[in-house]
Amino acid sequence: MRFHTHEALILEVRDLQDTDRIVAFLTRERGHKRGVARGARRRHSRFAGQLQPLAKVRVHWGEKEGRELVRISGADLLRPPHGLGGDLEGLLLGSVLADHMLRFAQEDEPSELYFRLLDSTLEALAAGVDRDLAARFFEAWVLRLAGIFPAPRECPTCGGPFPPEGAVLPPAGDALVCPRCAGAPAGAAGGEFGLGLAVPVPVLAFLVAIGRLGLAELAAQGGAEPAVLRRAEELAARVRRGFLGHELKSYEVMQRTLGELAGAG
Ligand SMILES: [Zn+2]
Q1: Across residues 46-51, what is the average pLDDT?
Q2: By the 8 A CB rule, do 255 and 263 touch?
Q3: In whole angstroms, what is the distance from residue 15 CA to residue 47 CA?
Q4: Which of these, 216, 209, 25, lies nearest to 123 by C-alpha position?
Q5: Alpha carbon of 5 to those of 2, 8, 38, 62, 136: distances in Å?
Q6: CA distance 72 to 13
Q7: What pTM value is reported for the model?
Q8: Ligand 1 centroid – CA 183 distance (Å)
Q9: Does the CA dihedral 69-30-114-79 come out positive or negative?
Q10: Which of 89, 110, 170, 221 is the most exposed place for a label (fewest CB within 10 A)?
Q11: pLDDT of residue 187
C-alpha cells in the first residue's frame, strides 16, 4: 500500500453499502481518483462534513498496485462548497462543473490546469460572481484545455477575419468559419442560417475576452448580455457534444429540471 496526501476538490459522493461512501476527487498531481471512505455514512464518522461535493479538502489515501479504487483514510476540510449547495440551481450547476472534470481531466495524470480552473471558478462563485457568467467561462475553458475550443478571431478555411455578420459553426463542425465559407446566402445574418449555428460578433468578442481575462475581471467589466451568454452556451454545448459523442448527463438533467420549473412557474 502506498500512501498519498494531496489537496483535492470533491467531485462526486455516492453511498456504498450500509456505512461506506465512494468519493471521486480531483487533484493537481494525480488527476481524478475514486476511493472508498469506510464508515463515512456513520453518524459520528471522522469524515462527517468533509466529504461534500465541491468542497476543497486535503485527502489522505492509500492505494494498491492494480486497484482502481483507493482507500481514503482521512480528509481535512480546506474550503466548504459555499455558494452552490444552498439551492436547487446551485446544486445542479455544481454537478455540471464536477461532471466536466470527470469527463475531461485524466485519471491518474497531472491535471494542474483543470484543478486551477475548477478551484478558481468555485472561489469566484463563493465571492458572488454571477453563476451564468461563471458557467460560460468554465465550460469554454474546459474546451480550451481539451484543445477543442473553436478559435474566435479568424476563419480557418479562408484565413480572413470574421466579417460584421459574425461566424458560423457548421452542423457537425468543430470550428467557426465565416458565413461565406459556410455557404450562407449573401446578406444572411442574425439567427440560424439553416447551415449551422450563427455566432454574431458580440459573442465572438465575449469568447475572445474569456481567453484574455480572469473570471473576476470579466465580471468586473460587466460580464455579457443574456443573449450573448445563451449563444455562447449553445456553441459550447455543440462543440462538447461533437467531441464526447453525447451530452453530459448532468447538463441534460439541469436543462430539463430548470425547463420544468420555468414551465410550472
Ligand atoms: Zn472563410
Answers
A1: 82
A2: no
A3: 13
A4: 216
A5: 10, 9, 17, 9, 32
A6: 12
A7: 0.92
A8: 9
A9: positive
A10: 221
A11: 52
Distance 163 CA to ligand 1 centre (A): 9
- C-alpha to C-alpha distance for 212 and 137, rounded to whole angstroms: 11
Q: Does the structure show a pLDDT above 60 at 229?
A: yes
* CA–centroid distance, residue 240 to ligand 1 (Å): 23
Report residues near ion ligand 1: CB below 5 Å: 155, 157-158, 178, 181
CA dihedral 129, 132, 134, 135 (to 10 degrees): 150
Average pLDDT for 7-33: 94
Cell numbers representing residue 77 in the block: 476540510
Percent of the chain, pLDDT > 70?
95
Q: Which of 85, 218, 80 is nearest to 141 (CA)?
A: 218
Query: 168 CA to middle of ligand 1, Å?
Result: 10
- Cell numbers at residue 114, please? 483543470
Contacts with 91 (C-beta within 8 Å, 6 or more apart), sequence order: 84, 85
